[in-house]
Amino acid sequence: MKGLFRGDLRRSLKQGASATALTLAAFAAPAIAQDSAAAPQAEEQPAAADIVVTGSLIARPNNVAVSPIVTVSDELVQQSGQITLEDSLNQLPGFTPSGNAGTGGQGSGGRATLNLRGLGSNRNLILLDGRRLPLSDINGNVDINILPESIIGSVDVITGGASAIYGSDAMSGVVNFKTDRYFDGVRADIQNGNSFRGDYGKFNASLALGTKFANDRGRLMLALSYANRDPLSGSQRDFFANRVPSSFIGTGAFVPDALNLPTQAALGTVFGRYGVTTPINRTLNLGFNNDGTLFVQTGAVNYRGPTTDGYAVIGNNVRMPVGPQLQVLNAFERKSAFAKGEFDLTEDLTAYGQFLFVDSTVTTESGGSLTQFAPFTTIPVTNPFVPADLRTLLASRTNAAAPFRWSARYVGIPDKGWDENYTVQQYLGGLKGGIAGSWKFDAFVSYDQTVHDQAMFNAVLKSRVQTLLNAADGGRSICSGGFNPFGITNATSLSQACVDYMTATVNSKERLTQTQVQAQVNGPLFNLPAGPVQLALLGGYRKNSYRFDPSPDLVLNNIEAVVGSNPARGGISVKEFAAQIDVPLLTDKPFFRDLGVGAAFRYSDYNPTGGVKSFEFDGRWKPFDALLIRGSYQRAVRAPNIGELFSPVTGSQLAIGTPPVAIGDPCDVRSTARTGSNGTQVRALCLAQGIPGAAIDAYQFPTTATGGNIQGNSGLTPEKANTFNIGFVLNPNFSSPWLSGFSMSVDYYNIKIRNVISTINGLTVLAKCYNLDGTNPSYAASNEFCKLVQRDTTGELVAIAQPYLNLGALDTDGLDVQLNWSLKLAEAGIGDGSGRIYASSAIGWLNHYKIQTLPGSVAQDFVGTSTPGRPLPTWKALTTVGYNSDVFGIGMRWRYQGKLRDISAITSPTAEQVGVKPYNLFDIFSTVDVTKEVQFRAGITNLFDKAIPFVASSQNGTDAGTYDMVGRSFYVGAKFNF
After folding, report:
1. How far apart are the C-alpha atoms of 315 and 305, rounded to whole Å?
2. Which of 50, 66, 154, 612 is deepest in the core (most CB within 10 A)?
3. pTM score, two decimals?
């Protein structure tokens, strides 16, 4: 450890950025590098006046930035105790947790993504050495899992819109991963960690080899790495013991048809034999006890089953908690190889190449399959396993011969899960060098492809289940013992032959390709008294293609508890031209140590959406050496991606929760919409939507999730954003050793996005249709949001349509603050060694996060709310204090997130649920340099074993992607140089 947050902001890049773990730096020029080649490192430049900062085509003599840049070293990754980059970066205030180990369940890909400012993982640009990385999905996301930590030297994060400078997708900023520099020798690194409970192991190992040859004209580096992470199940944490009380239970249940109900007399006769004298509501689900008797699921009347080991009576209702079945954090394995090399053909011409290969697998599980989504399987009255008491009720119906719907969790079949395997290859080659005078050029061609093989194991096939249920002998002639779904004992006694018959491993394949061709030139136009006016020009072409081939069972919607999907094909291409200019106005004058302005322009011609323009203006002023004032204004543009344009109707699971704790189905009699002052109007709306009158006053939605049908739209137009930032960097360089190590920066950002491309959030649809936020005061079924609500013939909520549309607006603004202080003890008269103490803090303050759902609608401010997958705290900070020397270092890191209200405070304020208290985590870390070649490190994360917080609006009771599910953990590691 060389000091987390080492903050000497006045150092030039030629002096090096030092081995900081986090520095909010003021050393990068405004860049014009959507796909630009990696900028040379500072020490590789011939003179201080020709420094090219990372990701920039403009060389400046004074390393200043008009946009804040956070530089993250490999030490931060190691000291975080993580084996994946996104978990380390998500600790920083500018990031909102997106895809990580706590997300990606239910077969959604298991990707690791980054999300700047909470604006979405598809609105920031992810680069490797200034070039685009392979895409991992139809929505243009980059899976950070493909980047082995062993090849990363540091990470630059530019916050704020940068489309004109870096290209489309950079509305909220750019994350540029920089590979390690060329070296001679061998480097090895190994790290192992686990929770203090011993149930969440993480392992990472890497080997890197570097050499220079042909009298240093050639340079070559090869890196190999392996990483592995164990899964964490909800059953391993007490928090999840009673979470998500699902009504899909292992006993199975009879679901009455509101238009073909058993008679009240028959119910009275059957339950009278059990000693029940209270009348039974005919519309309620009836479960099956092991002795063949029936029970009422809502009310637990005559329930004779277990209340432990996954079965419970919660709120006097028979439920089966899902939390213990879920894989809260998914398993991960990655094998990777990376190579890069370059050769100086002449003094002014260098050829270079790069290769990346990654094979990674994320494994997820979601518990036992359910009879959840339409079309539903049914049981005929001729089924030989139907209990006698149920036969009595069935015979009393108006249509006694009609099959009946059942509800169950397949407890006799192993949990459904997914293996998400990604094979990624990228090939790149190029030439760079000098041309006339001080002008330089860089041109490259690259091709990459990502193949995503998804295997869903233990998938229950509806057609096979229906065949068994329809069989006259209950399926005994098809598989040993047949399929008896009535009661826990019967359901769990399923023979292996029947398990094999009812299930399959379902395979689907995605393939994405990307071709890039780009050339750039840059150099001085002419000289002014303050220095040269510099120009950079860039031209490029990029083509992306996508193909998805789902399993036929997915196409036919033949898998229980999984919404079907269709094959898809699509592609986009873009031709781009960009220019950037930098004009120094004054230098070395009183009150104007430096004054300069710059501008950038980019024209992008997309096929099929057409041409878009973006531009940027910036300025910098240094009144004296200790103070830099900077600012910029940018018009950012994001064209729709392949998924937004072409994705077919694709089903997903949409969490709505169980009322009254969550919004649930507002037609549910337990919901605050039905029990509130406007319950009569909501009831009438639910009737108008198709819930039968016979069922309306007993209707309960049976689970915590419904379907979300997402569909592309070829008529989309680009998003546009105005972004503004202004701030200062203060580095006073005090003479006192106690203050000489102090520096700070404060930056204000403001991002306004219009014509936002998005699907409508399902919870928003429900809130607006049922007037939970006051936007449908007439409770009209013809309301545009109510038209997106889809119910079946029984009135049950089966899906919410979520097409991509150009919707309203998204506005956010806030402050980024960086404080750094360090003291060399010897300079303060304390000892005579190399010891140093330091303290540093990166602080984010979010002022507004406003969403306008539709043009003309009232914007809602979600700042300070807890949304699963997008927490928006007003305050977030990462603070580190510590000591280090040439041989030893120790420190403590404090991760802070301010209190959060539940999202219901905005979406349904009359039914606001409990929020999340301030969240604090503390970590300790230490390193020992045994020799110059050997270093050991160790640390403890979540030192005080912080408990898992409850998130009311989350389907699983918390936000596993944001909060620490593991508890106190440790890691040990070693680094060797030969």
Report:
1. 16
2. 66
3. 0.85
